[in-house]
Amino acid sequence: MRESDVPRVVEVSLAADGMFADAGLVLPPDDPRELLTHVLGAVGPDGQRRSPGRFGAVLVAEEAGGDTDGTGSTGGTDGADGAGAAGLAALVELDGAAHLEQIAVHPDHGRRGIGRALLDASCARVREAGFTAITLTTFRDLEWNAPWYTRHGFRELPREAWGPGLAEQWRAEGRAGIAVAPRIAMRRALDAP
Question: What is the pTM of this model?
């Protein structure tokens, strides 16, 4: 993610959140800039982000060729101002594994393989960083949440297998008010880098 992507990434995240309301889940108001700061660190006076001292990455999927023909590319160079951003994936480290904080695709670009491309790129990125597993938390019953991740190799992670970081992530999500429907933690083993 480039800093110039931030306005469009925020727009994508907020638009994707609207899908939950359409499914009957009322989530608390969200400021995606807080997620970016959590994952990548705060922006300093010089305009540069300060690393949070652990692995963190935000991948941006852009419209291929600046069009809307249904193809998407991750990390492309189209739209230097972020205008072509169609989706994002945010990754951090928890308990020695990579953790997928969020995948969001703008609804205008949904069902075109962008989410899958972001997931594949995320798995590749964390493998390159030396991780052998990736975790996430998600809604258990929404088709584009746990069932979708299950189709892509994730399995439910029982509570007794959680590390302290994932347990704190779970508690933080509860405090934030997003546990408005049953949620689960999931894990996917990754091939060695």
Answer: 0.84
